[in-house]
Amino acid sequence: MSNLTLKYYLKDSQKNHYAIGQFNFSTFEQLRGIFMAAKKVKSPVILGTSEGESNYLGIKETVALVEISKIKYKVDAFLNFDHGKNLDLIKKAVDYGYSAVHFDGSRMPLEENIKYAKKVVEYAHKKNVLVEGEVGAIGTESSKIYKKDFKIKEKDLTNPEEAERFVKETRVDSLAISIGTFHGIEAHGRNPRIRLERLKEIKKRIGNVFLVLHGGSGTRDDDIKKAIKLGIVKININTELRIAYTRALKSNFRKKTEENTPYKYLPRAIDAVQKKVGEKIKLFGIKN
Ligand code: G3H
Ligand code: ZN
What we know:
Layout: H1 6-16, E1 20-24, H2 28-40, E2 45-50, H3 51-57, H4 59-73, E3 77-84, H5 87-96, E4 100-103, H6 110-125, E5 130-135, E6 145-146, H7 160-170, E7 174-177, E8 185-186, H8 196-206, E9 210-213, H9 221-229, E10 232-237, H10 239-255, H11 262-283
Parallel strand pairs: 1-2, 1-10, 2-3, 3-4, 4-5, 5-7, 6-8, 7-9, 9-10
The protein binds glyceraldehyde-3-phosphate (G3H) and zinc ion (ZN).
């Protein structure tokens, strides 16, 4: 564990063309799997909790768990409040020690999105907490497995001009953009392709604001690599971790129907999460 900040790492990833993974969690075992993977590959890591995940774990408990794990695993880890829509919860996350908050006003008209994002920035920056805004909507919800092809609506993609205006007026540190990915995965494993041209256009207009790719699960590896080359520095993964965790437990109970001791069956879920996170960190290109 060092004293380096999240801002330092995001700047470094811009300079050296890699991305830092944000891995969401809502259980102690997922958290453990994420830390074990980060330690193994000597990588900094961002831990994400959505409103639902934070409500389940408790904001104070989440911070405490991450703080103690940073010391135990000697990993530079940063907590991000993911897709915050409720300003009171966002403020709580800032007050209780999150390193970053994501204000998701993507379903609001741009004017309103800007107005609320400004309020979040004003509050969070006083405490040196980074703020991620969002322009363009990233559809659906993590965990979902779509049987049919997922169609992104053109109107939901990030409009580069709007992105430029949003970052100028709000002074957010990072921007989540909609460039073809969505939350969840397609059952047949062919998620839509990333709109690389759109990404280039956005990058040109927003300069050094940190660009964030949401809906990372199921996205093709080659698309991820190209997106990183074009300026994505943070990639959010949730669905694939939830599926790995749940499948490990289900398969365990199919074989050992009478196992009732949590500390005997839960390590399988930790291993599954660790493996998945390790693969993603390697894909995102960070070298020690
Ligand atoms: O904010 C969280 C992420 O965007 C997760 O997306 O569930 O498709 O991995 P995912
Ligand atoms: Zn997301």
